[in-house]
Amino acid sequence: MYNVKTFNAIAQEGLDEFHADYQLNQTDDADAFLIRSVDLHGYDFPKNLKAIVRCGAGFNNIPLDVATENGTAVFNTPGSNANAVKELVVAMLIIASRNLFSAAQYAAQNSGADISTRTEREKTQFNGTELTGKTLAVIGVGHVGARVATAAGALGMHVIGYDPYLSANDAWHIPTTTKRAATLEEALVNADYVSVHVPKNSETTNMISTKEIALMPKGTVLLNFARGGIVDNHAVVEALDAGHLKRYMTDFGEPEILNRKDVLVTPHIGGSTLQAEANGAVQGADTIMTFLETGNVMHSVNLPSLEVPFVGKYRLTIMHQNIPNMVGQIATLLAGADVNIESMSNAARDKVAYSIIDTNNEFDFDDVVEKLEAIDAVYRVRLLKK
């Protein structure tokens, strides 16, 4: 029996995924956490905790170093809210191009017998432009960016994409009509609209700042519905004040950009749809069950991806440091315990590695696990039975 502890309001569709071998919220000493936005920094992780799954793409609310030291695999659910974010970005493109908010505010504040006449006379101040024929630069063409590129192309826009870290799998989803830029500068120099869709990390913090905004043509509309901090708000305010940027639209409010007519801020609602929450919960539950039952890893943010068919009766999974001779130590120890290895796979991600070993013969399970755990560089050992 596995125990899962949930935080926040997890969609019922996800909770319903768990089969009879799982108990929900019966103990704090859980095998897995299923979370959304709860901040786990400073949280005392139980040693038994094997997995944390974040229902959503972001994971900055999880202390990865602490989780790794505890032998806890951390996962997210990329793509589960991609359509929701895409639809919001498309809405913002239309709002920006047609001055919809200003026009609606004008209409709400005007009334009287002559309203029709005055409206006909004054509505030209809200004249917008059509998106057809305009150029959209999509910075980051992964799960969300590829969908934005597809939707913008369907609206008749010219789309140019830039993503130096594009994976082979993500590349399949980019429409063939999207021009691929070799550099960020190439993507920005002719853009009427720029939409940012990259993850937040040390390399992308302030990725769009003074230099990058200066590359954009005067009158560009900038959108950030990825993560706060990717766009430098101070640089945005300077560009807006100078009349270089026409408008900034974002899902991440900070004091310096609030209460401006040329900035539209939404309260982090990009992935907040009933469908996206259900998608994330279902994907999160399936991720927990796959990892706990098979040891296979996909969409982890602190472990390498490693999916191996379960070919033996027994499986050892070992989370350890990525240092020389670890595989050799493991294999030697198993040979000394008369474990006949049917299959052995290993992968590494930065400073962390992960090994999966399948065997058909029985052995002193407790003794082998204890000896493997005694290796200084090992974080966690698990024994699984088919």
From TrEMBL:
Entry keyword annotation includes NAD: yes
Record's keyword annotation contains Phosphoprotein: no
Highest taxon above the source species: Bacteria
Pfam families, A to Z: 2-Hacid_dh (PF00389), 2-Hacid_dh_C (PF02826)
Reaction equation(s) it catalyzes: (2R)-3-phosphoglycerate + NAD(+) = 3-phosphooxypyruvate + NADH + H(+); (R)-2-hydroxyglutarate + NAD(+) = 2-oxoglutarate + NADH + H(+)
CDD domains recorded: ACT_3PGDH (cd04901), PGDH_like_3 (cd12174)
Pathway assigned to this chain's UniProt record: Amino-acid biosynthesis; L-serine biosynthesis; L-serine from 3-phospho-D-glycerate: step 1/3
EC number(s) per entry: 1.1.1.399, 1.1.1.95
Listed InterPro entries: ACT-like_dom_sf, ACT_dom, D-isomer_2_OHA_DH_cat_dom, D-isomer_DH_CS, D-isomer_DH_CS1, D-isomer_DH_NAD-bd, NAD(P)-bd_dom_sf
Gene3D superfamilies: 3.30.70.260, NAD(P)-binding Rossmann-like Domain
First and last residue of the signal peptide: none
Key words of the record: NAD, Oxidoreductase
GO molecular function, one term: NAD binding
SUPFAM superfamilies, per the entry: ACT-like, Formate/glycerate dehydrogenase catalytic domain-like, NAD(P)-binding Rossmann-fold domains
Sequence ranges assigned to domain ACT in this UniProt record: 315-386
Function noted in UniProt: Catalyzes the reversible oxidation of 3-phospho-D-glycerate to 3-phosphonooxypyruvate, the first step of the phosphorylated L-serine biosynthesis pathway. Also catalyzes the reversible oxidation of 2-hydroxyglutarate to 2-oxoglutarate.
Protein family according to the UniProt entry: Belongs to the D-isomer specific 2-hydroxyacid dehydrogenase family.
Annotated PANTHER family: FORMATE DEHYDROGENASE 1, HYDROXYPYRUVATE REDUCTASE
Protein name: D-3-phosphoglycerate dehydrogenase
Organism: Lacticaseibacillus manihotivorans DSM 13343 = JCM 12514
